[in-house]
């Protein structure tokens, strides 16, 4: 990724940004307590991986109802970790999230709204600003996950690449944000993520899925079996720890619940209607 | 243990089993949230081992009242871990648990009722089915404890072998399920467990005790001092981690509270009255 000056790598808004940024009124450093089902998952600790299907079963997200575990984490013998999080989002539509993923990646001040206590920096790898889309683009992010500041690459892919049926998503008014994630500066993509957003009474709910390490590791641009073998050898050397999985669970639960609380207002202010106005 | 085909090693009931099994209406995949005192113990984390007496003090279970720690875990300098769990069981009698321990070990479909999210397989080492007793028998179980699927041997022993007074138990209407536990395929028995069930107003309460690793390790069939030395050397090489103790605490708290909620109904359906009928 393009190198970022260390002085740009700070949490939160500066006093100057708080005064001048167009987004400042949405920068809300107070975060709500963890939801009851998230607390339960954290106290329960790592669960049987059989309760948390692998990414090859992502298509099951199309089924109605819920999986055996919607919020929880597990570690597997191949060194991988699985983290699932359910986030209820009253008043939010799937389209708002589709917009958000295209919009947030162009400016750190936008990205920081999402997790004011962990998000540090963001930029598109293509060097461009807003293009109104995220699929096919790579987002370079700097964020804390637990105590570790990480430089990550999020390469957004089409839902079909993750095993989802795009026509079915559209037909049911659902959105699935899908990506391959990696550690910046390494030749490996280490995981998959899916945020599946579906309409429910009064709003929507997000079902986040992370599959990291182990069988999910591939050298970049080497998607086949050979890449899989190389990835699995590499990842066995550094198995994911349960604590890392629980930190990812906390991070995801926090950022999704936090943004959902004001996403409708943000969308009304900076979303398609606003962008349309600006073009006129 | 007799080898089990990998295809038999799955969590839960299959759709076919749900339709045909005589026990299917007792297979309840939803588990209640962890009880308040269990949450407190998990958040508190490992405590001073002095609050959790060793197995040599098991006889103190006969005393009225409660121990300094009834729910909690600790790790000791000898590499051992201690895990205690108190489970209130309204409507349950100690005799029901005595029946359960003899009954559940003959079929995986019975065993899975107990912990629908962690229990995988069970079978008696003697190859027999129901004998109406468990003391003197070895149960081979496959279960997840936290994220790890384990093959364990549970060798049930008389309460007197664990230091309890059998006459006193009978006189007070109490039951104590006592066993030596081990990892299948190893020459060591690694721990002790006691589930002490005593009547209380409105039902009973179970006081579970696990002493694992360290001084509790013995080569199988070598109960004396020499066995103790060998065990303690072996176990020092792989000290129990606090996370393993907390996973065991969660597992025990979940399974005991889960089964207790329908044990009276299960006992009425498949217990001694039913078994008597079948014999007539």
Automatic annotation (TrEMBL), chains A, B:
Keywords: Hydrolase, Metal-binding, Zinc. Its cofactor is Zn(2+). The keyword Metal-binding applies. Belongs to the DAPG/phloretin hydrolase family. Residues 53-268 form the DAPG hydrolase PhiG domain. GO terms for molecular function: hydrolase activity; metal ion binding. This is DAPG hydrolase PhiG domain-containing protein. It comes from Parvibaculum sedimenti.
């Amino acid at each position: 990724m393009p190198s970022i000056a260390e002085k740009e790598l700070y949490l939160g808004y500066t006093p100057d940004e708080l005064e001048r940024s167009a987004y400042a009124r949405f920068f809300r450093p107070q975060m709500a307590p963890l939801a009851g089902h998230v607390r339960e998952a954290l106290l329960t600790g790592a669960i049987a991986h059989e309760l948390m299907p692998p990414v090859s079963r992502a298509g099951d997200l199309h089924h109605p109802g819920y999986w055996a575990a919607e919020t929880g984490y597990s570690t597997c013998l191949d060194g991988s970790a699985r983290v699932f999080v359910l986030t209820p989002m009253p008043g939010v539509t799937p389209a708002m999230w589709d917009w958000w993923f295209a919009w947030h990646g162009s400016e750190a001040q936008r990205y920081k709204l999402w997790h004011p206590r962990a998000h540090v920096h963001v930029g598109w790898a293509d060097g461009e600003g807003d293009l109104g889309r995220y699929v096919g683009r790579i987002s370079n992010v700097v964020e804390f996950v637990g105590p570790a500041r990480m430089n990550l690459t999020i390469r957004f892919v089409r839902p079909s690449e993750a095993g989802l049926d795009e026509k079915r998503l559209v037909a049911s008014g659902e959105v699935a944000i899908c990506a391959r994630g990696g550690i910046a500066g390494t030749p490996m993509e280490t995981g998959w993520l899916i945020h599946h957003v579906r309409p429910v009474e009064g709003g929507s709910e997000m079902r986040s899925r992370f599959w990291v390490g182990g069988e999910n590791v591939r050298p970049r641009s080497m998607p086949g079996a050979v890449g899989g073998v190389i990835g699995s050898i590499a990842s066995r050397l550094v198995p994911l720890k349960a604590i890392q999985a629980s930190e990812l669970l906390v991070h995801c639960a926090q950022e999704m619940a936090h943004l959902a609380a004001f996403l409708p207002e943000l969308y009304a202010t900076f979303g398609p209607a606003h962008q349309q106005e600006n073009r006129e």
